[in-house]
Amino acid sequence: MNENNRPVLAVVGATGAVGTVMRDVLSTREDVWGEIRLVASARSAGRRLTVRGEEIEVRELSPEVFDGVDIAMFDVPDEVSAEWAPVAVERGAVVVDNSGAYRMDPDVPLVVPEVNARAVRQRPKGVIANANCTTLSMIVALGALHAEYGLTALRASSYQAASGAGQEGVDTLHDQLNKVAGNRELGTHPGDIRRVVGAELGPFPAPLALNVVPWAGSLKDDGWSSEELKIRNEARKILELPDLRVSATCVRVPVVTTHSVAMHVTFEREVNAVRASEILRDAPGVVLYDDPARGEFPTPADVVGTDPTWVGRVRRDLDDPRALELFVCGDNLRKGAALNTAQIAELVAAELSA
Amino acid sequence: MNENNRPVLAVVGATGAVGTVMRDVLSTREDVWGEIRLVASARSAGRRLTVRGEEIEVRELSPEVFDGVDIAMFDVPDEVSAEWAPVAVERGAVVVDNSGAYRMDPDVPLVVPEVNARAVRQRPKGVIANANCTTLSMIVALGALHAEYGLTALRASSYQAASGAGQEGVDTLHDQLNKVAGNRELGTHPGDIRRVVGAELGPFPAPLALNVVPWAGSLKDDGWSSEELKIRNEARKILELPDLRVSATCVRVPVVTTHSVAMHVTFEREVNAVRASEILRDAPGVVLYDDPARGEFPTPADVVGTDPTWVGRVRRDLDDPRALELFVCGDNLRKGAALNTAQIAELVAAELSA
Ligand SMILES: NC(=O)c1ccc[n+]([C@@H]2O[C@H](COP(=O)([O-])OP(=O)(O)OC[C@H]3O[C@@H](n4cnc5c(N)ncnc54)[C@H](OP(=O)(O)O)[C@@H]3O)[C@@H](O)[C@H]2O)c1
Ligand SMILES: NC(=O)c1ccc[n+]([C@@H]2O[C@H](COP(=O)([O-])OP(=O)(O)OC[C@H]3O[C@@H](n4cnc5c(N)ncnc54)[C@H](OP(=O)(O)O)[C@@H]3O)[C@@H](O)[C@H]2O)c1
């Protein structure tokens, strides 16, 4: 704690896609922090980055950077979190981890403050996990509907942005756009986009410009991708519904930031679209934007850079009175990563300062 | 008929997005036609366009262009088909219509040759309808699975290409790409893409470059779009399953041509992914491309310009042994429009020549 009883925060991975947005989030939300330390790899040590209007020198990740730190946010790859979160805990910090390393650990709570804030206090390992960005893009809206109607099944098809694959994903998409723009013949013959884009596919398994790619993450059993199973496992854990029926198809689209998800959701009770819309409109962290007659439905271009989960296209299934169809958008770097992490960290900060 | 017993064909709308691909399809498939007449509006009359290697002058739509015509393909807006198809029939032609004007008419068969070829002969009005491009992108694969397992429900989320909105859609996407390319700040702040793209949205209700837009078609009851209801109504009619449970969310993506659909399909009987994949692999008009370990799944960039429906990501639902999850791609201008029309016309040509 600083002398003014404010917790000391470390941001590990401050230079990445999530870390960059985290610095913005920390600079614009109500400031509850004492000192903020920025940490990354040796590659970035010494760079000066801005947070809360102050320039701060990036420090190389080491055990000592955690000395005196109350809360450490980890916005780094899985294996870096797996190795270094225990080090931070040992030095006395509570870790809020954005990677996939701890999410399904039974001793680590997986927290979305609008849905299960109280889970934050059960953290036997001193680590709290932040959900995957695709899960986070929809879970706040789902949680609100679940509280009213009782969720039984979720079918989700995603439209995931390039930045979900980190800064390299963003750079790859922009590079490819530069190559395809201005060529009006493209997108007509098989393989012409591959030829123009060339071998530089970055983190994606196929060209992303002028294309959609039905793959994200790594291959798991029976043809499922890791990203699809994350949605299933994380939704079950956050909603405390271990038997929830979930199937997802994750697809990458040529959008820079903001994931969208088309959802078909089934409930225990009958639903109606008007009441469901009221629930969504009143839910904290949700914006209902749903008037197609006036051209109102969420799109990534409008949602990017904002905090809430935006929901539109709310319709009751035409055959099943217990099912809803909806379309949601959420900024994968804000609510999908940095914002949710900041919200969790603020809950812990309030607890520590109390 | 020409003297050599070959039917005379008119292509109405020969200058449009579908008409352009139709000329290519007619130039590359086995040639069963006598004379081919190209027809469009007064705007295009006199233009010289190529089909089967011959240059032909475009004629203005009039009753007389149908004199001596055996089969007339209509690749024009709904209202033009509604007005002019009866004229062509009266002059003795069988009409194969690509518009939405006749699809749900009980006296007009809705034909996908791989699924219901025999329906072509019941045409009391002399008109045969071609299905909507989104329906056509998936129905051949669905039909093959239905024959084996008995379809009970379809949940579909589409990733629809710009050319589904005609040549204006393609031009709009290319124009917008030119404006956004090279600007690496874009896609980070709300509204920045709208600002750069400006007011020229073409046939789309929001910017399409670096965005996805959960809307296609016009507004129907209870918030459904016409495009979503077409999938429902046309799938039911083609598969002769009037009570099939269908719900769809249609989303436009920044792809030039080739629609993709993520499908969650439920059957009467238990399914297994290996057998389902064999059925798809052996189905006429379907290519199974499904080996994620080797980076094999269909994407629009690879599928565009090809004839079949490409299927990948075949997985059995993890909770429901009677459900499959899959991802399909089909060229919306080929199988989704021109190719299917040509296949229907060839069935009629064979009948007339017999
Ligand atoms: N992008 C999203 O939408 C999203 C959403 C939710 C969760 N996440 C998760 O958040 C984490 C970060 O993702 P990102 O998208 O921000 O990735 P990114 O853009 O690739 O950034 C990675 C960050 O980790 C740092 N780093 C890498 N290796 C390191 C090491 N050995 N020691 C110290 N720092 C190291 C990098 O620092 P240098 O600059 O020094 O290399 C950089 O700051 C990942 O676990 C990701 O799965 C991402
Ligand atoms: N695009 C697809 O993926 C797709 C798929 C399946 C079905 N369809 C349907 O196919 C039809 C054509 O679509 P498209 O995408 O090719 O549209 P498009 O690119 O806008 O082309 C429209 C065509 O119709 C002609 N036309 C318009 N008004 C006319 C009139 N009053 N008299 C004579 N010709 C007229 C145009 O000729 P001018 O050049 O003279 O204006 C042009 O050839 C539509 O009904 C559409 O719904 C489209």
Automatic annotation (TrEMBL), chains A, B:
Record field: catalytic activity: L-aspartate 4-semialdehyde + phosphate + NADP(+) = 4-phospho-L-aspartate + NADPH + H(+)
Organism field: Haloactinopolyspora alba
Chain residues that bind phosphate: R103
Its EC number(s): 1.2.1.11
Keyword S-adenosyl-L-methionine: no
Cell membrane is among the record's keywords: no
Keywords, comma-separated and alphabetical: Amino-acid biosynthesis, Diaminopimelate biosynthesis, Lysine biosynthesis, Methionine biosynthesis, NADP, Oxidoreductase, Threonine biosynthesis
Residues the record marks as active site: C133, H259
Function (record text): Catalyzes the NADPH-dependent formation of L-aspartate-semialdehyde (L-ASA) by the reductive dephosphorylation of L-aspartyl-4-phosphate.
Class in the EC hierarchy, top level: oxidoreductase
Sequence positions that bind NADP(+): T15, G16, A17, V18, R43, S44, S163, G164, N332
Family under the similarity heading: Belongs to the aspartate-semialdehyde dehydrogenase family.
GO MF terms, alphabetically ordered: aspartate-semialdehyde dehydrogenase activity; NAD binding; NADP binding; protein dimerization activity
Residues annotated as domain Semialdehyde dehydrogenase NAD-binding: 8-123
Highest taxon in the source lineage: Bacteria
Chain's gene name: asd
Residues given in the record as substrate binding sites: Q160, R252
GO biological process: 'de novo' L-methionine biosynthetic process; diaminopimelate biosynthetic process; isoleucine biosynthetic process; lysine biosynthetic process via diaminopimelate; threonine biosynthetic process
Pathway where this protein functions: Amino-acid biosynthesis; L-methionine biosynthesis via de novo pathway; L-homoserine from L-aspartate: step 2/3; Amino-acid biosynthesis; L-threonine biosynthesis; L-threonine from L-aspartate: step 2/5; Amino-acid biosynthesis; L-lysine biosynthesis via DAP pathway; (S)-tetrahydrodipicolinate from L-aspartate: step 2/4
First and last residue of the signal peptide: none
Pfam family, one: Semialdhyde_dhC
PANTHER family assigned to the protein according to its UniProt record, in alphabetical order: ASPARTATE-SEMIALDEHYDE DEHYDROGENASE, DEHYDROGENASE, PUTATIVE-RELATED
Protein known as: Aspartate-semialdehyde dehydrogenase
